[in-house]
Structure formats: C-alpha cells, structure tokens
Specification:
The complex is a heterodimer of chains A (about 200) and B (about 625). Chain A has seven helices and six strands, in the order E-H-E-E-E-H-E-H-H-E-H-H-H. By secondary structure, chain A is of the alpha/beta class. In chain A, helix 2 links the parallel strand 4 and strand 5. In chain B, helix 4 runs parallel beside helix 5 and helix 11 crosses helix 14. Classes of the chains: A alpha/beta (about 200), B alpha/beta (about 625). At the A-B interface, helix 1, strand 2, helix 2, helix 3 and helix 4 of A face strand 8, helix 11, helix 14 and strand 21 of B.
C-alpha cells in the first residue's frame, strides 16, 4: 500500500498509548510494515501526548513531517484542532472523541475554548473528512479510546486494516476483564445492536 | 495477552514489535549481561519496565535502581572489575552526575566488560538541556555507538558488549529519545542461557586500579589511547557503517543515528539526483578509512549531524590532513545546532545547503484557528497542589523560592508561580544558601522531592547546617519517584527486588544535625501554611516535610482492588458565588469554567480526594459522592 501516516494525540492519562499500540499491531497483523513512536515528555502530568503510527514499505523515520499525516486521531477536542493544525494534510481524515479537558488558560478565562464548530469550519475549509464521536453511556472515561477505535473500524478509515486485525492486536495487549470490557465497547460501537 | 517477560526469555529466534528500550533488554539477555544498574530518567525508564516484566526468580541478571547515576556507575564498575559483564543506563544529564567516575573508566581494565547506555535528549523533550554527551565520551576516551532504530539498538548493544569484553574497556551506547521510544518489528536471535560464573576475579596483583599521579596515570592513559586507536580499523566497528549508494559521484552526505532516518524520508521526495549517504554506526572513534574513501569519491559532502559539530570537525581534519579538495559543509548557522533533526528540520537544512535538491517546500496551511496552549500540570488530587496553594499564602511576594527536579517543579507555572529558579538534581538547597548571603530582607525557601533528597540533596543540606544558612527547605515527599513513573527510593519501603526498611527522611535530617524539622500532610493546608510561616521566621536552617502520597499512583493501585468505587465532588450551584478560587488559585484541572462563569466538575478527571473543599470560600464543593 501507499504509505499511510497516523498522528494520534490527547492529554496525559487518556489512554493514547493503548490505542496507538493497537493501531501499530493491527497494521502488523494486516501484513504491513509499520513503525511508531510516542512523545510523552511531561505528559503524565496533564500535558499533551503525541504518538505516530506509520504504515508502508518506504517509511524510514517514525516521525511525521508537519501537515504530513494522512489521518489524525484525537482523544480530546482541543488536541484534535491542534493536531489538525500542525500534523494533518489538507484533504486528510480527522476523528476525535468529543470530550474537553480545559487547558489552564481557558480555566483562567484568558483564552476561548475550542468548539465543535471551530473544528467543523476548519475541516471544511481544508477539505478534511472529519468525524466527531461520543458515547452517551460510557462509564469509564479511560475507554474513550475504544469508542474511537470502534468508529475507525466501522468507518474503515485505515485502508487494509480489518476488524480481525484490531481484535488480534487487542488480544496481544490485554487480558481477562480488561480485554473483555475494552472489546465490549469496541464491538458495541463497531456494530450497534438492532433496536 | 502476550507477556513481555516470556517474550524476553524466548530461547528460539523470534520477531516482535518492541520499542528501542525493550529491544535493549533482549540484547542484554542474549549477551549474558550479569549486572545492570540505573537511576530513573526519561527516556530510559522503560528499560527497567521491560526488566521488571521478568519475574525476579527468572531474571537472568541482577538489576537495581541505585540512589543516583554516579552510584549506579560505580556499582556496575565494581561488578565489571570482578569479571561480570555489566551495564548502567540513565538519562542524558545523568552523565553529569556520573561523570566523576565515568571519566576514569577508560583508564581501567574492565575484565568483565561494561556498557554505558545513555538516553540523550535532542529537542529537550524532558530534560533541562539538550547536551551532546559525545563531548564527555571524547574527553574520557570512551567509544560511542549510535543506533537509529530499535533493530539497531539490539544489534549495536551486542557489538558494544563484544568490543568491551575483548578490549576490557567501557563502550557507550548513545540512544536518543525517539530511538528509545521508537517501535518496530525486531528480529531477535536465539538465547542459550549460561550459568553466571560467581568467581570474584578482581586481580590487583597483575593490574593497577589506583590512578594516582603520573607514574600510575600515564600508563593507564596510554593504554586507553592505544585501545581507542586500535578500534579505528576494527572490523566490528567498521561493520556498523552503512553506505546508501545512489550512484552519485558528485554529492554525498555523512550522518548518524535518528537523523539518518529523517534524511532517508526527505530524500524519497528529492527532485534532483539523490546524494549518496554514509551512515556512521560508531561516531567515536570514526572509521577513518571509510570516511576518507567517501570524501575521495564525492566532490561535495554534507555533514548532517544533530546537536554539536563533533564529527564534522574531525572529518574536516581528516580532509585537511590528506589535502583533499572535496567541498565539505557542516553546520551553516546557529539553528543547525539546536533541536532534534526531525524530517522537517533535515529538509530545511538540505534546502539551505543544496537549494535545487528538494522540490519546493510544500505550502503549509495558513490562517490556522487558535488553540490555547496546554502546559503540563499536577494531577487531580496531587498533594503538591495543596502544598503550593498553602505555601503561597505563607510567603511574601518578594521572597525567593527555588525549585528542584521532579513533579513539584511544575509549581513554577501559573497559578502558583512558586519555585522561580531551577538547575539540576539536588541543587536547590545550596543555590538557596547562596541567595541568602548579603540578603536579610527576602526570605529564601527551597524545595526538594524525596527521591532527589537521596539522589543529590544531602550534600547541600549538610552544607546549610554546617555553614549556618538561614533558609527553609520544604521536602515535597510523595513516597515515590513520581515524574519518571513511580520507581521506589530509600524511603519507599522497598527496592526494585524486595521489601526493605524505610529510611525516613526525618531521621536522615536529624542525623545531619538539622534542629528545626516540622512534618505535615499537605492536605492540612492551614497547618502547612502556619508551619511555613513559623519556619521562615527562624534565623537558622529549617525544614518542613510536606507529605502526601502520589495520588496518581495511589488511585491506580486503588482501582485494581476489588470493590473499588469512584467518588467525585460536585458543585452546589446555589452556594457557588463564582469566586473562582477553585479554578484560578487552587487550579485543579477537574474544575472547568463555562463562558457564563458557571463552574463544573470534569467527571473524566475528579478522583474524589476532596482536597479542594477547604479552598472554597462559599463552601460550595460537596463532599465526594459515589459517581
């Protein structure tokens, strides 16, 4: 396949490491050559976490050039727009979980928060296919990443990676109750039960 | 689930997706490394995470987190001169701490072999500078190997071991942040476990380990230089060099490490004829014959070198000595010295060097909508937040506060702005002592985390007692090395391998002769404020131990226990007077402010610690309820 670069972002504590590792391993299970790298810095303390997954035979560096990503996956609304601004190519794909962890300057009333409309307008301006996802009844915020993963699979956003590849990647990384609960959310989102 | 521990102990060859830090541990196992030591620091802690994934009874080598990098280096050195292959790993600035011992290593005969693994940090992702540690390696005649990805981390460590054992000299494996954390499928060899020979082989009869004065130092230095010179033509070292031949007789590029990968990505989009690339595996000593050959077969050579111009100067010297006419260009301006050589940066550098080589720079999107910056901050429930909130009220605006390294460093950010100077591990007390001299009008309050207290904090404290510096030290004790991922320290009650007796900070302080010591849980904000006011008023060195367990660690552990239920606070909107203390001064990220000023609790974040309740002047924050 053509090289496909995914830029993932969120706030420390949101579970970006898990979804990134699942994407990486799913690509491998799908038979692709893949590289990845996380940048956490001080992120465990509520800062920005970034990860990249790069799929393809001619990928060298795990890092992605500015506005060179084919797809952005964001776990938080502010980080979604930040990533779209700095990492995503025009005409790319963006999917984000619609939760807000207000940055300090917003809480101090020194800056305006990012709204859903801000993201929609920017994506339309730059011809970006964008998806805003949310799960009304999700109990554990740490599984917002699985909601995203379910939508990514359902919408078939990463060429060549299918449900079984995501499931195998999940089984590589999780076990027991954790696997069950994560897989449950993933499956529920991916294939909603008939009303 | 795949078990990392089982994977690392696999006997037959296999392939697995791992990060550089994990690949390193497999290389240690295959190489028969006996003793491994460290002090935690980014980007290397995941090396210990991989080691910890192997149960202690199955672990084929000894590992410890030592009290600091110098101690870790000394433990590894002691093992090596007793015949045991050893490895020490730590972060970039850890080498500064270790340097007094490190610079001597090459003078010694390390009969077991010893590899120093460094996590350098170009781009200063998590360090106070982006120092280029190749300078210290050169100063101490220590060879340096630089892998660019996890596969090379694995392969180069094994070469480092082979060279170190053969030459009985230290070898430095220099990783950088995005080599440590890069992930890819690595093809590992098999592992045939061999029992460790417990014979203590230290031999002072035939070998000198006392470097004192010229008669003993000069032979050791001569041998270090000879060993280094011998490596220049060593086949193992030469085998690490790679040439990417694009058949270009005109242009060539010499590079190493992660910048090589950036370069290859950038060249994929080159418009003109691609330059040949010489990728160095060993950056010290340099493979001179290979470099000379590359210079002789290209007219125009670019040195693409991250951080400082270490091999650039040496390559130019090689060309000068041979009278070559090759055009060699290295760093062109100051920006070339700064930051990580990402694909973007490498593209910019190549455009400056050879404007016709790359296609026109892509038009990046313009007029981007603003996104408020997100600085890192203390976690919900963090005891440091309560501490800073209280301490700020106890101090005058003119007082001088000195931070140290650790989670509490983040106190310098709004809304607390406490801790206005920062240097390095353990430096705060002595810097504060200096700030006290010829200063009777501004109180000096310094901070120290508990792991840092043991790491490098003690000499400064002893000095303050001994030389009578009237400052106040606040030890921010959270029971762990929190910033780097919760490693234990001397006061934690366990080490990496087993439970231990706690070494209480109070007892250590008393032993050092500190006379004024107060202790308080930081959630008791009023008491903490009063104790700080009392302590700064004392005309002597005083200490306040401001204690609260790391709530990130505490909450994670609690979640794993059966019957765990999440509790969260709530805002009583009838009581809330929009005083905004919770968002503006206490600053827990849990509190959010809507455009109409309404305060809410972010249910993704609140852990129900309730430390916020005492800060609300309207008592509008409810007791934590089951979420």
């Amino acid at each position: 396949m053509e090289n496909f670069s995914i830029y993932l972002s969120g706030v420390g504590g949101q579970g970006i490491g898990l979804i990134s590792e699942i994407m990486l391993r799913a690509a491998d299970h799908a038979g692709f050559r893949v590289k990845g790298v996380d940048t956490h810095g001080l992120a465990q303390r509520g800062g920005i976490v970034v990860s990249r997954v790069r799929i393809g035979n001619t990928v060298h560096s795990p890092l992605i050039m500015s506005n060179g990503a084919d797809m952005v996956i964001a776990l938080e609304r502010h980080e979604a727009l930040r990533s779209i601004n700095t990492a995503l190519k025009d005409g790319g794909i963006a999917i984000y979980y619609n939760t807000v962890w207000q940055p300090l300057s917003v809480r101090l009333s020194q800056a305006d928060p990012v709204t859903e409309a801000d993201i929609q307008n920017e994506c339309e301006r730059r011809m970006i296919r964008h998806y805003c996802v949310f799960h009304e009844t999700l109990v554990d915020a740490r599984m917002q990443n699985m909601v995203l993963l379910g939508h990514i699979d359902k919408l078939n956003l990463v060429p060549g990676i299918a449900t079984e590849h995501y499931c195998r990647a999940m089984a590589d990384l999780l076990t027991g109750d954790m696997l069950e609960r994560n897989a449950h959310i993933f499956n529920e989102v991916r294939q909603p039960t008939e009303p | 689930m795949k078990s990392m521990g089982d994977m690392l102990l696999t006997k037959t060859p296999f392939a697995e997706i791992v990060m550089g830090n994990t690949a390193l541990v497999r290389a240690m196992i295959e190489s028969g490394t006996c003793v491994v030591t460290s002090y935690p620091g980014s980007p290397t802690p995941e090396i210990a995470t991989a080691i910890q994934s192997i149960p202690k009874e199955k672990r084929p080598f000894y590992f410890e987190f030592s009290t600091n990098e110098k101690v870790a280096t000394e433990v590894a050195y002691g093992a090596a001169v007793n015949g045991h292959l050893s490895t020490v790993f730590f972060k970039s600035v850890g080498l500064n701490v270790a340097s007094d011992t490190f610079v001597q290593l090459a003078l010694m005969k390390l009969i077991g072999g010893m590899v120093i693994v460094l996590g350098d940090d170009p781009g200063a992702n998590s360090s106070q500078n982006e120092q280029d540690n190749r300078h210290l390696a050169r100063m101490s005649y220590t060879p340096v190997l630089e892998p660019s990805d996890p596969s090379e981390v694995y392969a180069f460590y094994k070469v480092a071991v082979a060279l170190s054992k053969e030459q009985m000299m230290p070898v430095l494996l220099r990783l950088t942040t995005h080599v440590c954390h890069a992930k890819e499928k690595v093809f590992f060899g098999g592992w045939a476990p061999e029992p460790i020979d417990p014979t203590p082989r230290f031999d002072a009869t035939h070998e000198n380990y006392i470097p004192i004065a010229a008669p003993l130092v000069f032979p050791a230095k001569r041998r270090a230089l000879e060993r280094l010179n011998g490596l220049v033509f060593h086949d193992k070292l030469l085998s690490l060099t790679k040439v990417v031949d694009h058949g270009n007789k005109q242009k060539g590029i010499i590079t190493a490490g992660l910048p090589f990968l950036s370069l290859m990505d950038v060249l994929d989009a080159a418009a003109g004829e691609k330059p040949d690339v010489l990728k160095l595996g060993a950056v010290y000593p340099l493979p001179k014959t290979v470099i000379l050959n590359f210079l002789q077969t290209h007219n125009d050579v670019k040195i693409l070198e991250e951080l400082d111009d270490v091999f650039e100067k040496e390559i130019k010297a090689i060309a000068f000595d041979k009278g070559l006419k090759t055009t060699i260009s290295g760093k062109l301006d100051m920006e070339d010295w700064i930051g990580e050589y990402t694909p973007d940066k490498v593209a910019d550098i190549l455009r400056k060097t050879w404007p016709a080589l790359l296609t026109k720079k892509r038009d990046l999107p313009q007029d981007l909508p603003p996104v408020p910056w997100r600085p890192p901050q203390m976690c919900p429930g963090c005891g440091h937040r309560s501490a800073f909130f209280a301490i700020k009220q106890a101090l005058q605006d003119t007082d001088i506060t000195v931070a140290d390294i650790g989670c509490h460093t983040l106190g310098f950010l709004p809304p607390y702005e406490v801790g206005k100077l920062l240097m390095c591990m353990g430096a705060s007390t002595a810097i504060g002592s200096g700030l006290r001299l010829y200063n009777s009008s501004r109180n000096v309050v310094v901070f120290l985390g508990d792991s840092t207290f043991f790491h490098a904090g003690l000499p400064g404290i002893l000095n303050a007692v001994f030389n009578k510096h009237a400052i106040t030290l606040i030890v921010m004790e959270n029971g762990t090395t929190a910033m780097t991922g919760h490693q234990d320290h001397a006061a934690s009650g366990k080490n990496f391998n087993e439970p231990t007796e706690k070494i209480p900070i109070r007892q250590v302080l008393e032993g050092l002769g500190v006379e004024h010591i107060e202790e308080v849980d930081t959630y008791e904000q009023a008491k903490l404020k009063a104790l700080v006011e009392k302590s700064v008023a004392i005309d002597d060195f005083s200490v306040v131990i401001a204690r609260h367990p790391c709530m990130l660690k505490f909450t994670r552990e609690r979640r794993k226990k059966p019957g765990y239920a999440l509790y969260q606070v709530d805002i009583d909107q009838d009581r809330c007077t929009q005083h905004f203390t919770c968002v503006e001064r206490f600053g827990c990220p849990t509190f959010t402010r809507a455009s109409d000023g309404k305060i809410a609790v972010n249910q993704d974040l609140c852990i129900g610690d309730g430390s916020c309740r005492q800060t609300c002047p309207a008592a509008a924050i409810s007791a934590p309820n089951k979420a």
